[in-house]
Design brief:
The chain has three domains: 64 residues, Uridine Diphospho-n-acetylenolpyruvylglucosamine Reductase, domain 2; 140 residues, Uridine Diphospho-n-acetylenolpyruvylglucosamine Reductase, domain 3 (2-Layer Sandwich), CATH 3.30.465.10; 104 residues, Uridine Diphospho-n-acetylenolpyruvylglucosamine Reductase, domain 1, CATH 3.90.78. Helices cover 25% and strands 27% of the residues. The strands form six sheets. A five-stranded antiparallel sheet has the order 6-7-12-10-11. Strands 1-2-5-3 form a four-stranded mixed sheet, covered by helices on one side. Bound molecules: uridine-diphosphate-2(N-acetylglucosaminyl) butyric acid.
């Protein structure tokens, strides 16, 4: 195990922010993880997964432990489904592609989401009508303080919209080391109801899509709207889509009859934050190297040398302007560090 000092994290966060870690180590297996946890105080640790859901606003004066544990395996099979385990350090999209190569269904709508397997449950990643929790069985974890290993089942993870127990009561206490998924071998349950998937499949003249067709459609939609972090630093959706009251929604609708929305309950409506930002006039807005993406206003981008603080200043401006115009407070979806 090699510990590097004053290590630049530029290649380890999808925003491409150039901050330094006092110490950096990438662990490849559970044994190395145990060794480093044993010799470092919990308060001195910073656990890093795929780095795709964070905004680094300054140097990290801690030991950054990058979870690079790899591996995927089939645990058991029935006629209908399969239990698959992926280690935390597997790249999420590569894992999804692997499941599709075996014709295992369940993760196709989650194609091309940046990040690693181990961090996917923390915010219950979701896209196009499907969330990680829909195929999730359990995750293996290690307690940062006691080094005790514990498996969390679906109920124990308390998944919600971009949320889980690992973002709340247990924040910073456990490291996810592997995730188990139940995937279908036949009679896949397809989720094509999300508007843009249907349109994409229609334009491809596909009437009875396979899981691979759905994945291809999702990839095409994402590529058309969302910037690739390899070329333009970003962290996907920067804000959560806010929930507002039916009453407040009616007010917005009077001025904008076409406002998009998702019905959550009779009292609560979810409105796309990207739409609110666009209507506040900020789509494509840029301040230095920090910008609002021109195809999807919910995504903030780093055009090159932006600092985390500059991106955060832009986020604050967006929050203020959306609040002023719609009386809605946007909450970040990414972790601000
Ligand atoms: N819209 C605009 N202007 C914009 C962006 C969006 O008017 O600049 C409108 C769209 O026209 C559409 C609606 O807002 O009517 C929804 O847009 P979209 O389908 O792009 O989805 P979203 O609600 O903005 C969410 C997730 C994405 C996920 C997509 C698809 C959140 C915070 N974001 O975005 O997740 O890919 O749905 O399911 O829930 C991520 O978490 O990083 C992420 C990309």
């Amino acid at each position: 195990m090699q510990i590097s000092q004053d290590f630049s994290l530029k290649n380890y966060n999808s925003f491409g922010i150039d901050v330094k870690a006092d110490r950096f180590i990438s662990v490849r297996n559970l044994e190395d993880l145990r060794v480093i946890l044993r010799k470092t105080y919990a308060s001195e640790l910073f656990i890093l997964g795929g780095g795709s859901n964070m905004l680094l606003t300054g140097d990290i004066h801690k030991t950054v432990v990058h979870i690079g544990i790899k591996g995927k395996e089939i645990i058991s099979k029935t006629e209908d489904d399969v239990l698959v385990r992926a280690a935390a350090g597997e790249n999420w999209h590569n894992f999804v592609m692997w499941t599709l190569e075996q014709d295992y269904g369940g993760l196709e709508n989650l194609s091309l989401i940046p990040g690693n397997v181990g961090t996917a449950p923390i915010q219950n990643i979701g896209a196009y009508g499907v969330e990680l929790k829909d195929s999730f069985v359990s995750c293996h974890t290690m307690n940062i303080q006691t080094l005790e290993e514990r498996e969390f089942n679906l109920a124990e993870c308390e998944f919600g919209y971009r949320n889980s127990i690992f973002k709340n009561q247990l924040k910073g206490q456990y490291i996810i080391t592997a995730v188990n998924f139940r995937l279908t071998k036949r009679d896949h349950s397809l989720h094509t109801e999300y508007g843009s998937i249907r349109t994409e499949l229609e334009s491809r003249k596909i009437q009875s899509p396979t899981i691979k067709d759905i994945s291809d459609a999702v990839i095409a939609i994402r590529q058309s709207k969302l910037p690739d972090p390899k070329h333009l630093g970003n962290s996907g959706s920067f804000f959560k889509n806010p929930l507002i009251s039916a009453e407040q929604f009616e007010k917005i609708k009077q001025e904008y009859p076409g406002v998009p929305s998702y019905h959550v309950s009779d009292e609560l409506i979810k409105v796309p934050a990207g739409w609110l930002i666009e209507k506040a006039g900020l789509k494509g807005y840029r301040e230095g190297d920090a910008g609002v993406h021109r195809n999807q206003a919910l995504v903030l981008v780093n055009y090159g040398e932006a600092t985390g603080q500059e991106i955060w200043a832009l986020a604050e401006k967006i929050r203020e302007e959306v609040h002023e115009k719609f009386d809605i407070r946007l909450e970040p979806e990414v972790n601000i560090i």
